Each structure stands twice: as C-alpha cells, then as structure tokens.
Amino acid sequence: MAEKLLRVALKEDRAPQESSSPVESHELCLAQQLEMDASWLPAYHLEPEHVDVIRAFVSSPEKDEERKLKFLTSIAVLFRAATYNSLCQGLDLFCQRYKLAENIKVLLEEEPRDQLHTAVWRSAMFAMTEMSFVEAVLEGKEIGLLQACFSGIFLLPPKEEMQDLKPFLYFTTMKGMDTMLVALVLNSPTSRVNEKMQSIFQMLLTFTTSERASVRERAVGRMRVLSFLLANYSSLKADPNEERHASRAEMQMPIMGQLLGHLLLLLSFKEEETGHLALDALCLLFQFKYQQHCATLTEENTQLQGDWETETTSLRTSPSATHIIESFAEYLQPSERSDIVRVFIEAMTDSSTFDKEAARNVLDVVRGNPDLWLVDVPKITSCIHKTLGCIKSVPARQSVESLMVSMADKCPQEVVTTLLQVAPGGDSTALALWEAMFSVPQTVRNILKELLSQLWDLKSRLFCTHLEDYCLVRLAMLASRDLGDRAFAATYLDFRFLKEERPAMLSLVLRAIMTLSERDDMARKMKVILPDLMRVLLFGYKAATTKALLVFRTIMAQLERREASHIAVQMAEFLLPLLDDELSQLRESSISLFRDLMMMAVGNDKREMKNVVRLGLLPLFFRLSDQTQSVAKLKQDRRRAQEFLIQSLSYLKDAQASLREAAVRFIALQTLAEDREPSIRSLVAQTVIIILSSSREQPRPRWTLRALCCR
C-alpha cells in the first residue's frame, strides 16, 4: 500500500496541476507523509541510518568530501543489504524520488581532473555496482554515468605526473571501474546484454584514438576486461531469475569489426602497456569468435579447448596485425570483415594517431584476398570516398587508391554505382578515385564499360552537372567498341572530347587515354587525336599538359618515321616554352619528348627541325645544371658543357643576324660578374677566360648541329 501511494506522489509531481477529489487528495497526503519518513521502504528497517544519510545529503546544500563519501557508502550498503535479504521492493522509487543516479553523476563531474586525491571516484563506482543488482534502478542512466566515469578517470594525467598519488588508491579506483563494468553487464537482462556491451565498447573506442598514451592504456585495459567477460559469458551469467542465458551463437556484437580493427592498430604501440593489453584482448576475442564459430557447426566439440588454445599461443608468438587478421578471417561475419577494412582505411588519415605502415600492411592482406574481405563494396567505397580527402601522405593515399582499384576489378558495377551515388557534382575526391581506376589497363576498360551503361541510361548527376558534353561517355563509347582505324578516327572526329577545357575533367580523360594507349593497337588508332593533344598544351594546365606529352610520345612511337616527321616538327615547336617550365616533371617530360622528336625528322622536315632545335639550345644548355637529376640526365653530360660554350663562338660570324644575336646573349656572362653568390662569380670568371682563349686559339669547330642535338 505504501509503495502504491508513493507512486501516486511521484506521478503527481510530473503531472499538470488539476482539481482532485477528496479521496485523491487524502491519498496524496498519505503518500507525502510516507515520503517524509521513508519507513514505507522495506529495506529501511535493515539500514535506517544509511537511508537517513542519503536523504539528508540530497536535501542539504553542504556537500564536503566527508559527506560525499558517506552518501556514496550509504548507497552501496543499503543496496547490498537489500539485495542479500531480497528486500529490493521500492528501491527504484526511492532512487527516482531522491535522484540518486543524477546526484552521483554531479559528484563525478565536480571531481578535479588533474589529480586523484580522494576516494570519491572509487566509492561512486562501488555504489553503482551495488545499484546495478536491482532491476530498473539505473535503466536509462548508465550511459551518462559511464561517460562521466570514463571522461574523469581516463583523462587524468599519467600516474607518474600526479603529485602525491597513492598507488593503492589508483589501483583500487581502476579495480572499482572493472568491477562496475562487469556488474552492469552480468546484471542486465539477457535481452539487453548485447546492447549493453555494444554501448560500453563504443564509448571506450572513442578514447583509443587519443594522442595520450595514458588515456589509451586505461581505455584498452577496460576493453580487455569486457573481452574476458564476452569470452566467458556463458559461465559467468549471474542472474538466477533468467530461465536461460544467451548461448555463444546468440551473442552477436555489431561493433565487433570496429573493435577488432582498433585493437589490431593498437598493437603498434609496442613500447607501451597498451600494446600488451590490446594483444590480450585480441586473444580473448579470438577465443570468443572461435568458440562461437564451432558452436554453429556442432553441438559439442571435444577438441575445442585444445584447438583455440593452440591458436591463441600462435597469436602471442607472432603478434603482428597481419598474422592476427589472417587468423581471425574465417571466423568473422562478412559485415565484421568490412568494418575492419573501414577502420584501417580511416587509420590512414593525417589526423590518425595510428601507425600508417601497419595499416598499409593490413590493407595489402585485404587486397591479396578480395573475395574474402571486399564483400560490402558500397560500404567500403563510401568509406574511401569520405576518407581520401583527409589523406595527404603519398604512400597512404596510394594504398587506399590501390584498394579501390582492387574493388573495381572485382565488382565494377557496384563501385561505379556507389561512387556515382555518393559523390556530388564536380567532387574532387571522386575525380581522384576515377583517375586511380583509370590508371590500370584492365580496370579502365571495365569501368568505362560500366560508366557508359550507367551514365547513358541514368544521366548521373556527377557527370551531368560537371560534363555538359559527356566527354567521358564519349570516351567510353570509343574505348569499348572494337573499331578499325578508320572507324575509330571518324568516331573521334565526331566526339572531339579533348576539346574539354575544364582542368580536372581534361586531366581525367587524358589519364584514361594514357592507360588505353599502352596497347600498341590502340595507340596506332589514336594518331587522329594528335592535333588535339597539341592544342591541350595551349590551355596551360600543367597536370593535363604532362599527361598529354606522355600520350603524344606513346602514339608517335607507333608511327612510321615518314608519317611522324612533319608532326614531330610541329610538336617540337610547341614544346619550346615548356623546356624551361618551373614544374620539374613537366620539364622532364618536355625534354624527353623533344629529344625523341629531333630524331624523327626526315627529308625537308630536317631543316625546319634544325631551326626549332636552335631555339631550344639555350634552355637545354642551362638545364645541364638542373637540380632535378632526371632532367639533367636527359641532356648531354656535364663534362661536355665546355664544348658547347666553345661551339657557340662560331655563331658570332653566322650569316643570320638572329643566330649572331643568340650567340651574343649566350656568351654575355659578364653581366653576372657582380653576382652576390661567390660560386656564380667564380663560374663567370672561368667562363670568360674560356671564351677569350677559345676565340684566339680554336678553329671553327667540327661539331654539327645534328651531332650536338643527337649525342
């Protein structure tokens, strides 16, 4: 009766004020009186003093450390006594009325975060442990309380930095947290165990990415405790009122993949206790997954104990992420494997605290067995698209892009569909992924085929908004058809997709053409695009220009010399401004192509080529000192620089005024005699001496322009 009346009072507190009958008013009055003395509570007669301490603390504004500890201790004693004597009736109402969970949370949030001087944390967690034995007392409040505990204790300074820290206090505080976590799980109804462990693991994972070793260590230590609980849950379940508890097969943990992925990454912190704790947790989770897998195959497995122990020993002997992930693979659900892959992709971001090399090694394992690991293509593709923009490291970016290529080879349709769906119009990350896929011969053909099918039918927003003329669709149409040389040429002249002037898309199209032209038969067909390739140089887009030069060189190599001769002269003239470009890669490509083109001129084109080469002689000479070795190697050896200088003297007497002018500029190094760099002044002095002595002593050199250009 008393409990019923208190429920009326609690309900009245929450309900809007309305007129009530005399009977209802009388019941409310009785309920308020019962609330005043708390004698209605069955457990009150067991621990009346502790009940009074709790009520006094809640109502008093004075909350010093002594009162806090008495309040928390009284809660623990009251609930322990009530549970032991089976007098838990009404405790949920008592907690609700005096807001015990809320008051504990406030106390935790008020504790200092720079030191551990008092037992408040430990006493609060012991109180929560005892409260968890009474159903519904903490329902809906556990997450807030746990978050307060984790944030406060994990973020404390390292033990070594806390002044006057008592080791026993620190040890018992951490032990109190472990006891609390186990109690919260074991005292949950079977139907909520998965949910409870999922929530706790999720909170703990947020602390494993901290840059502070002490934070990671404390979080992983609690994950190890829960992993032990998960591996041994069937034998530890403590609720005697449950008709049955969950079997291993029923213990599904949606967070398992993320959990395993983070623990594998934490192995790299070998100099810390974190790595050892992570390995312990992984071995326990392996035991759980192994036994869970065996439970689905047979009811009883007499070899079970020995088998998983043998496997666990192997894991501890070779505790590398690649070895462990291979051991886990066959016991994981497809969704768990996909989540592990996503964790390692996200570990590649610049802000990640994890070891990038360890993450790359695991992704290598994934690429080595795509049928096993790359099962949820849409989820992994979306993850790559979301993450790639946050990866600046070249090796890390290449690893993720290679993973994308592996998926595209395995499931081109799903990759194309997903990427078109998740990428907004003109998305730079999506364009980078397309380019990565366009870099592999077999992949580019498969992807272009899918693009042709999907873009033609669906008119994807990515390419509809960013490509009004559908240049990729046109390229796909050209590449996917088995056209002869004439039909190929006619089709391209209808499309002219290289007239696209937007830098990103032009670069993407050229990337695809580069890859497609690696096949000799395709390169021969592509001679029709050479005029448009030369026009690309006029746009001034460096990335596109570099690719255009490489394509041009590949196509020219497939032409007969007489057919290539006139085109070579034209292209050599286009290259002159690029020989001195500020971008080293573009300089290298330009000079390399220029060298090849000089050799292609025949007949009347030779004279024109010589004129072009004369114009390029000066920048080529100066590039002998290019700090980019690959550029310098493309010209004559440095030891022949003096011979070039001597040869230039002959041009001072040339019949053509333009050549005499070029020679004067070439040898007029005296203007640098006052250069502030001593090395430059010294070089000028040496050069002037060479010029003066050579002009008196040297005959007209035997070098010819052809010899100079072709050595």
Topology overview:
Layout: H1 2-14, H2 22-37, H3 48-59, H4 65-84, H5 91-98, H6 100-110, H7 120-131, H8 142-154, H9 167-186, H10 190-207, H11 213-231, H12 233-236, H13 256-266, H14 273-297, H15 304-317, H16 321-328, H17 334-346, H18 356-368, H19 370-373, H20 377-388, H21 394-410, H22 412-422, H23 428-437, H24 441-458, H25 461-466, H26 471-480, H27 485-495, H28 503-516, H29 520-525, H30 530-539, H31 542-556, H32 561-575, H33 584-598, H34 605-622, H35 629-632, H36 641-648, H37 657-667, H38 678-697, H39 705-710
Helix pairs in contact: 1-2, 3-4, 4-7, 6-7, 6-8, 7-9, 8-10, 9-10, 9-11, 10-11, 11-14, 13-14, 13-17, 14-15, 16-18, 17-20, 18-21, 20-21, 20-22, 21-22, 22-24, 23-28, 24-26, 26-27, 28-31, 30-31, 31-33, 32-33, 32-34
Can you put this structure into words, describing what you see?
The chain is mainly α and 711 residues long. 69% of the residues lie in helices and 0% in strands. The protein is built from 39 helices and no strands. Helix 22 packs across helix 24. The chain is elongated and about 120 Å long. The N terminus and C terminus are likely disordered.
